[in-house]
């Protein structure tokens, strides 16, 4: 009970709602950014694998 008292009073409900909405927006934007980031990582893995295979076959690619 003591740690709860040290936190102070809870903020007003509109402030709490605005805070939760801000967190929701950050999570939504984060999901979109991570979706793009995963695609970029997969494309990079494929590109490096192709370059490596071409190098193993004796082609000078870089």
From TrEMBL:
<dbReference type="Pfam" id="PF26072">
    <property type="entry name" value="DUF8029"/>
</dbReference>
<keyword id="KW-0472">Membrane</keyword>
<keyword id="KW-1133">Transmembrane helix</keyword>
<keyword id="KW-0812">Transmembrane</keyword>
<feature type="transmembrane region" description="Helical">
    <location>
        <begin position="40"/>
        <end position="59"/>
    </location>
</feature>
<feature type="transmembrane region" description="Helical">
    <location>
        <begin position="12"/>
        <end position="33"/>
    </location>
</feature>
<dbReference type="InterPro" id="IPR058342">
    <property type="entry name" value="DUF8029"/>
</dbReference>
<protein>
    <submittedName>
        <fullName>Uncharacterized protein</fullName>
    </submittedName>
</protein>
């Amino acid at each position: 009970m003591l740690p709860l008292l040290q936190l102070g009073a809870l903020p007003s409900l509109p402030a709490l709602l605005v805070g939760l909405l801000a967190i929701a927006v950050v999570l939504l934007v984060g999901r979109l950014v991570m979706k793009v980031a995963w695609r970029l990582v997969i494309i990079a893995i494929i590109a490096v694998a192709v370059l490596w295979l071409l190098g193993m076959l004796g082609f000078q690619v870089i």
